[in-house]
Design brief:
Layout (H helix, E strand, L loop, with lengths): L10 E8 L7 E7 L2 E8 L2 E6 L13 E3 L4 E3 L6 E3 L16 E2 L1 E4 L2 E7 L1
C-alpha cells in the first residue's frame, strides 16, 4: 500500500469506499474526478493504479491478479503491470500506468488525486 504521508500540491484525498467491500485478491474500477482508477486489494494491502492498459484501452480492473508478484494482467492482450510501480512486466505494453497514493483509515479507502 503506498502512502508517503505527504500530499502533492493541488491534490486531494477522495473517499473510495469501505475496505470490507473489496475482497482480498480482487480489483474494482472506480471513476473519481475524471480519473479512471483500478482499486486493487492483495491480502490486506490496497493499491490504486490507472485503470486503462497502456497498450490498448481495456480495463485493468477486469484482469487477473498475481498476489505473489503483485501484478495485474490485462485481460485482453496479457500485459501485466506492477501494482506498486505501474511499470509493465510483460509485453505487449511498454509504457507504465499511473500509480496513486492510497490510504486506509478507519476501514475506509482513500486515494489522492489531482484537482
Amino acid at each position: 500500500m503506498s502512502d508517503t504521508g505527504e500530499r502533492t500540491e493541488g491534490a486531494q484525498m477522495i473517499e473510495i469506499g469501505p475496505l470490507a467491500e473489496l475482497a482480498p485478491d480482487s480489483a474494482r474500477r472506480v471513476d473519481v474526478d475524471g480519473h479512471r482508477l483500478a482499486v486493487i486489494r492483495i491480502g490486506d494491502d490496497v493499491y490504486v493504479i490507472g485503470d486503462e492498459c497502456s497498450h490498448a484501452d481495456y480495463s485493468l480492473a477486469e484482469g487477473e491478479i498475481d498476489s505473489d508478484d503483485k501484478t495485474i494482467e490485462c485481460w485482453k492482450h496479457g500485459s501485466a503491470f506492477s501494482v506498486e510501480t505501474g511499470e509493465p512486466t510483460s509485453m505487449p505494453a511498454i509504457k507504465p500506468v499511473p500509480v496513486y497514493t492510497v490510504r486506509v483509515e478507519d476501514g475506509v479507502i482513500h486515494v489522492e488525486v489531482s484537482s
